[in-house]
User: Fold this.
Amino acid sequence: MLYLSDSLADPLFSATDRDGAIVLLVTHDDLFVEIDGHGYRLKRGNLVTLFPTHTITLRGQSEHAACVWLWFAFDFMADFPLLLPPEMAERFGATPVSLLSDVDFNVLEQTYETLAKYDAATEHPLRMGLLKAQLFIFVSELLHRSADCAVAVQGRRAETLSDTFFALLHRHYMTERSLAFYADQLCITTKYLSKVIRRTTGRTVYYWIEEFVAKEAKRLLRSTDATVTEIAERLNFSNSSFFAKFFRRHTGRSPLEYRNRMK
Assistant:
């Protein structure tokens, strides 16, 4: 539910099926990474925030490069106030790299170090509560310190359209699943949107729409007590039968089988 590391070789860092958020702080020298097809040279002061839909690949690093990162499942903080407001989640989704001032980065680094101390205190009777409280402080500082520090990447038109499509998808996937809706929002034809998304991601528009819906369905089944019918309604399926067929097609299991397996 919460994991801290300083190794980019850790399988969780680049896993394509990690469910939750990764926050990385570059503490020394240079890292060269590719995030969603965009190249970045990261240095001390850079903050990287990755959601499940982001892909990241380490392309190289300088001799003394160093970083720390943490992963947390979204439902780990379910009993706390809203951890990532929708507008900030959208911003991090579109621009996952920020460059902080020395002062702001030092504060975030110190907050991370306190979190690491609590994580290491395995014998402490209140360790889990302290971890959740300190993680809330860490993310709150992150939101405050990085509010206006996004690093923009100037891409080609196809890449820019693809980025905008995914930002729209984050916002509307629970209610809008037609190719025409997203094409209209982008003021392009459905044919051109299909071509752009397949070229930039190797997948179709419908693949990504269904992928987002399936991930949310799994999250709701794991972390809530909502019935299958309630989840189907929340995800805008006409009935629970259609939802069950959709879910089985994506996971090979019925919703109830998946929920029972995850307990």
Remarks:
- The two ends are 14 Å apart (CA to CA).
- The mean pLDDT is 87.
- The first helix runs from residue 11 to 14.
